[in-house]
Each structure stands twice: as structure tokens, then as C-alpha cells.
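User: Predict the full complex structure for these chains.
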Amino acid sequence: MVGDALDFQLLLASARHEIATLLDDPRLSTGLPGKRGGALRDHVLDLIAAVEHRMAHGPGGGASQRARSAFARSMRQSIGVLQGAHAALPWLEATRRPSVNLGSLYVTEEWARILVGTDVDLVVVPDPEFMYATTSWPFSAVINETPGFTARNTRRPVVLNYPLSDADRVLLHPIFAHELGHASVDEHHLVDAVATELDNDPAFTTALEDTVNAMVAGTGLAQTQISGMLRGLLLDWIEELLCDHLAIEIAGPAFMWPFALFVLPHGYGEVGREHPPNTLRVRLALEHLARRGWRPYMDRIAPEIMVWLDGIAGDATGALDRLFAFLRDQLLAHANVLQDTASRRTGADALDPAAMEPAADEAAGLLERLILPVGLGNPLDSRAILLGGWQRAIAEHGDHPAGLVEALTDRRLQELVGKAIELSTVASAWKPAK
Amino acid sequence: MMRDLQRLEALSSAAALGLWADDIVLALDRVTSGAGFVDADRQLLNDAAEMLEATLERTEQPLSRPRSARSLAATNTALSIVATLVREHPGTDEQEILRDMAAILREAAEGTVGTDDAERVEPVMALFGLLGEHQLVESNSVLASRNDPSVWSATPSTSNSS
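Assistant: Here is the predicted structure of the two-chain assembly.
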């Protein structure tokens, strides 16, 4: 019977077994050299300690059957999460042998500092499947729901997946900035900030009411159900768009070009449950870039690509189902809220076109002569080197969509860019001994 | 497509809500069995009351915005469970159930519920027990999805990926 003595015996033994299996694994039991991966390891150890805490606080002898069943369920949940925690072990292993380009890793760590904060443990792991993705605090929901338990780790672990085949495709790596946006949004409650501003706008609440009522009439579902579904989608879309905006803040056009070449082969104006149509994403991204003063630079470097992207942006207002049209129209109408929220987060660390354009030009000029673009005087900013890399790539491979794709096959260019970022980071950080 | 990272997040979120619901059952049992509060119970019971009040608010003002994505998920599930209870017990009312249960939880948090109140508290324990059961099924379906690629590709995306 569920929750009887034998059930408890089995569950506690199984939980102990899962814990022992995790702790016996050398990837977890062995300390990591340096700081990378340390917070992730501590986070997994916190999960184990939280489950042990739960195991030690089972119901007493006089507990009701409902309480015994509840404890049995909580043990089953805990065992499932411990089994899931095995997924973290290869991530710990990856921190010992990073396979991503070192220059990319350095610039990604800089982005993480700007977007998320200084107390971040960034773990960049190749994904056997072809996808970029991220998660942070993967077990915190469970750890934090353990009454009376306090976690040891306070440093945010961020795990960032990239396709192994893209390890050296440095020009594609500004996509990491979007992925880090998810950690930033979570850390700084940015989705809530945007949603609150929308709710304070009477035009939004009126449109919401109209849409919900029309859908109630059309579907027979309750207002609460429609509203809940709509709000869930809205929050998801806001998060994705915020991540695009944050990436633009810190990487500028160096995000826009790989973003377009990465997402557009997957979809054009189709609606995803969590992802807005790419037409909308391109439109809002271009609007943000223009507001940040990047448009003249982009028109100078890639005029034909910009015409192509403008055309895609123009398709953002095409026909959609009522629900999705509501989301699209409201987000377009509140583009300034997304932009302001992203700009407030990055503050003075946002990429400044006035400062970056000459540096990117210098980097592109050096790359044209196959010289490592570290800088002729002071070391160039790593983000300017990346931008100069794209500038040179478009000049060499063509100002058209296929040119963006072909740039990724240019190993020599990307090796120079990655190595230059690596050296520039080291040179900037190095201080001579007194 | 749903990837490993997001699967883990989904598992962690589903499990956390289930663990929380079952902890409320355990806390209420301590109250009514005379075992007494443990330190975290007062907060736990107040949080439970708050969730039911937020659910009630959504039935009264369907367009209102839940405080967070977590609150949206929890109140969605609570709404669904309470709707089932109402269907199974004709003559009952969603809002009345939510209001009464939230009040009992507030009383329990204040320490004014004791062993004599077991009958009154029982439906609240049952509700949170159902929430715990629902979430265990959710967690298991996330875990099982790993072994079935067709489920992965058929699952609506929860990916953070670009």
C-alpha cells in the first residue's frame, strides 16, 4: 500500500542508492581545478543535501494515511529529480576540457558579467544535438521548496549548450548573448518588469479584454482559461524578445547577422508556442538597432542584407490568428518597453556605435591583410574584434544572405578573430608587476 | 524541440510544485494530529493560502495578472483541480471552496486549528494531495520523454534556444 512501512523502506533505500550513485561518480566527487564549474558542482551537492534533509523529516508514527501518501510522493519526486541530476555530470566533465574556442569563451564570460552579474559560474557545454540552449540554477526550484533547508551555494551556475560542430564558428557565437539573456531575465525579473508596464497601459488591458471575450465567444472556454493561456504565451514571447534585445545591447550588429542566418532557416512567419514569429523578432531587433544608432553602420557594411532584413521585418504584420495577432500587435506597440528594459540592464556596458565603429573598422582592415586584429595601439575591445570579423566576412563572402552562411565556413578568418579576442582579453587584463 | 536542458528545468519545476503541495499536506497533518508546528510550517501554510487566494482572484477577475510565471502555473493547476471537484460534487461552488480552504489555511498558520478540526481540514489536505498527485504524473511524463524521441519532437517547445 502506498505510504506503508514497506513502501517507505523501498523509497528511502532507492533515494539513498541514487545519492550514492551520484556521489560515487568521479565527475562529481572530484574537485574541479579553478573556478569554472565549481558553483554547478555545489548546486548538485545542494540538491543531494536537500533530498537528504527531506528523507530525515518523514512523518511520525501517528501520521494520517494522507500524510504518509504525501511523504511517499515527495520521495518519488525526489528520486526522479536525482535521476535527472545525472544530466549535470557531463557538464562538470566539460568544464575540465572546454572545447569551445577560447576567445569565444572569454567574450561570453564578459557578456555574462554584463547581463547576469559578476557572481556567475558559466559552463559552456557542447550539445550532441544541433541546438543552442541555456539553463541556470537547474535544481533550485526543488532545493528552495525544501522547508528548513538552506542551500550552501549562492553563485549562479549557468549552463550554456552549443552544437559541437559550431565550437570554432566564432562568428556564430554572439547567439550565446541571447542565451545568456535568459539567465539575465531570470536573475533580474525582467519579464515581470515588462508585463507590469503593459498592465499599466489602459490600451493593453482594453485590447486584452476584447481578445479574451472574443475567444470566449468563439471557443466556449472560460475567461479565466483563455486569459491564463494568453498570459502564459505573452510571458514566453516577452522573454524571447528581451533576450534578443539584450543580445543587441551587448553585441550590436554582430548579433543581428548570425541571428538571422540561424533562425530564418528554421522558420519565417510561423508562430511557435514559446518563440514569436521570426518576422516579428527581426522587425523588433532592427527597430532596437536603429534606436541604438547602429543603422548607418549596418547600411554601410551590408546594404543589401539590410534591404533583405527590412523586407522580412515588413512581413511581421501579416495575417495571424486572433490570439497571436493580439500578442504581436501589443508587442509592436510596446517595443519601447522591451528596448528600455534591455537598455536599463546593460547601462554603460551597452555597445556604443561611436566607440565601436572605428575599432571594428580597424579590426576588419587588419583581417583583410591577414593580421591578427588585436589592435595597432592599445588592445581592441573584444566585442569590436567580433564586429570587425563580421564586417570582414561580409566583405569577403558577399553582401547577401548566402554570404552570411558562407562566412561560417571561413575557418581562417574565425581562427584569427578567436585568437585576437583571446590575446586582447589577456592583454587588457594583464597588469605589469611593480 | 525539447532539449535536455529544458527537460531538466521542466522536471525541476514540476517536482518542486508537487513537493510543495505534499509539504502542505504534511504540515496540516502535524497541525491536526497534535504533532505541533515545525519552524517552516507557518510560512508554508500562509503560502498555500496565498496561492488559493490568487486562484480565487483569477476566478473573480479573469483578466488579472498572476504575480509570476510560477503563480500562473500553480493557479492554473489549482483551478483545474477545483473545477473537477465541483463537477464531482454538484451544488458546490468554485469560489466558495477556494475561499473556505484559504481561510482554514490562514487559521492553521495562525495556530488556531487543532486536533478537533481534523474533519474541516481534511478537504484541504485532499486538494493539496491531488495537486501532489498531478505533479508526480507531470514529473514522470517529463522523465519518460527522454526515452521517446517522438515525444520530444511532438512536445510543444519549452526550449530557451534561439
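Chain A has three domains: 5-173, 187-349, 353-429.
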